[in-house]
């Protein structure tokens, strides 16, 4: 059997791979007969040699190849093939012969091409050649809207929880389609609610992304000099249990990212900036880039000084936590 699993939904891609493993039989036996290969360095000859190996005390062996398809992705192709002894055309021709090999591959072998970060919008000659040869192909991309809301309800039900429609909507707004993060947040909410239905307030109190979203709102308010709104954001974060030092750390982190974005400039693609700064895939960089346009270097310098003064004031007891943070927000709102 030959499977191709690809797309940008890392969670559902891994779920599909787990399902294939389960269908092959005893997990202990399959584990012994599983080989994972790095497709970025692999040759077609090396792959066929592995696929031809007879399974040990099992009816099948599983061969998983990661990174092969991205090697031929349009746009990244030359950089990924750079340094290889053969030219790109020779490498592509070598791999295109795999479609013929798959027809004669031992029936005891299950081959899976596994690609979780493939840009399906880019041209990919390798994918085009191999798709017709696949017994099954799964393109699993990030889900949105009603499909994501249904997934949340279904996941909660499968794990013994219930969730209201407003709570589902809030989770969608806070987290989006990153199902790894979404599953973790729902698990926390189910544990927190102990059998009762998850409400919108539960999401606000427990979900870490609610606090990150508040930081963006707070920085937006500061940027535009809206003191009352900024203070409201601050007090809401304190109400929902965010520690003063954590608030300082989160604001400092956001301002530091803004500073680094300004240093890079606007000529680089958003995805490249994320990788350059080491940010999470779901980090809303577009919001940060908009904020960066409103901060001058001088204003950022003043903001960092204000954060330092507030930290010292809290630690030395000069001001109560809430008063110190209020004064900081007023200072940050000054242009």
Task: Please characterize this protein's 3D structure.
The chain is 60% helix and 8% strand. With 335 residues, it is of the alpha/beta class. The protein folds into three domains: 2-139, 3-Layer(aba) Sandwich (Rossmann fold); 145-206, Helicase, Ruva Protein, domain 3 (Orthogonal Bundle), CATH 1.10.8; 209-333, Zinc Finger, Delta Prime, domain 3, CATH 1.20.272. It has a five-stranded parallel β-sheet with strand order 2-3-4-1-5, sandwiched between helices. The N and C termini lie far apart (64 Å). Residues 76-86 have low confidence and may be disordered.
How does the SSE layout of this entry go?
Layout: E1 2-6, H1 10-24, H2 27-32, E2 34-38, H3 44-51, E3 61-66, H4 77-81, H5 88-96, H6 98-104, E4 109-115, H7 125-130, E5 136-139, H8 145-158, H9 165-175, H10 179-193, H11 200-206, H12 208-223, H13 227-239, H14 244-264, H15 270-277, H16 285-292, H17 297-316, H18 321-333
Helix pairs in contact: 9-11, 12-13, 12-14, 13-18, 14-16, 14-17, 17-18
What is the level 1 CATH name of the largest domain?
Answer: Alpha Beta
For the termini, the CA-CA separation is 64 Å
SS content category? alpha/beta
Number of domains: 3
Radius of gyration in whole Å, from Cα?
25 Å
What series of H and E elements makes up the topology? EHHEHEHHHEHEHHHHHHHHHHH
Spans of at least 5 consecutive residues whose pLDDT stays below 50 are: 76-86
Please state the second-level CATH architecture of the largest domain: 3-Layer(aba) Sandwich
Number of helices, counting only DSSP H or I runs of 4 residues or more: 18
- Rounded mean pLDDT score: 85
Please tally the β strands and state the result.
5
Please identify which CATH superfamily of the largest domain we are dealing with. Answer: P-loop containing nucleotide triphosphate hydrolases
Instruction: Give the DSSP E fraction (strand runs of 2 or more residues).
Output: 5-15%
